[in-house]
Amino acid sequence: MIKIINMWCDGSYTPKHQGRVGYGIVAVVNNEEIASWGDYKINDLADKYRNVLGELYGSMYCMLYAYENEYDKVIIHTDYQGVISWCDRTWKCNNEITEKYRDFYDKMKKSIQIEFVKTKGHSLDENNNKCDKLAKEAIRRSLEL
Q1: Which pTM was predicted?
Q2: Is 110 helix (H, G, I), strand (E, B) or coil?
């Protein structure tokens, strides 16, 4: 039987905390949440790419989590169209960040099946809303270190 995980991700950026992006992730198997977390990156490109960078980190960590935990397929739910469109090549990669993201996706899809689902941000999708909060909290936590 194929081992499938559904994962939601969202990214965050706040200009008052420059140089940082956050991302939130919720992992669900058989309609049960098995994990959720928020993390951050301090990156000199954060102020240029803002929340897009957080969105891409979140998606990459979903792929990596699924691979490392030996899932056959990951379904990534995202409210940011670029997470999907750079991978399916309906959007052109115009910078190093989007190119590296697509390259990462291309490598990962050789090992696991990756499917994307577009969800509406700030809506009734509770997992997406939770990811949004986790991403924002991650940035706040990064300031305490």
Answers
A1: 0.95
A2: coil
